[in-house]
Amino acid sequence: MVSTVFSAITIEAALNDYVLIHCNFLERPYLQGVFGDITTDYLRGSIQKKINLVRDHWPDKFPDHLLNDVRELFRIRNRIAHQSGEFVPAFESDSGNAMMTNRPITSSEMQHTLRHYDIAKDFLSRFWLPGTRELLYRRDASHGGDESEKSDGHEAANQAL
To answer: Which pTM does this prediction carry?
Structure first.
């Protein structure tokens, strides 16, 4: 169960960073502010909305089975993290006592939890966040440097990573 929660946290943190990082590529502070506010809707939105954003805009296709596994990981995580029980009054229980019950994790859900680390690792390996390399390349290009300067900046950024 712990790997389920941490796998979900890792995926959601990466998706949140993916949503936010693009504001760094806007030159004008006004646009940074506008798009920063717009991205807040995604950050506070559902995980499904974030998964769909990456799926729809990432240049490489994510396998459907992987997206289904990621969605199932979050469904199970939500069951674990937001457990809600049921109250059974005494006149409805087999024992004649009032009781509270929780819906147990099914065997297929339990089998799925054994793969959560690998699902998260696979999903996260398929996309990356634009970072230092892209920001330096953009800076060099915007300052009118020639291709060799852009290449040198690109290589320097790669070494910094």
So the answer is: 0.70
Q: Which residues are paired to 88 by β-bridges?
A: 99
Contact call for residues 130 and 25 (beta carbons, < 8 A): yes
Distances (CA, A) of 79 to 24, 43, 145: 35, 21, 53
Residue 86 buriedness (CB in 10 A; 0-12 / 13-18 / 19+): exposed
For the chain, give every domain's residue range. 2-127, 131-161
Interval 9-28: pLDDT, tens: 999 999 998 888 877 777 88
Cα–Cα nearest to 115, from 161, 157, 65: 65
54 vs 60: CA distance, rounded Å: 10
pLDDT digits (tens, 9 = 90+) for 101-123: 888 888 999 999 999 999 999 99
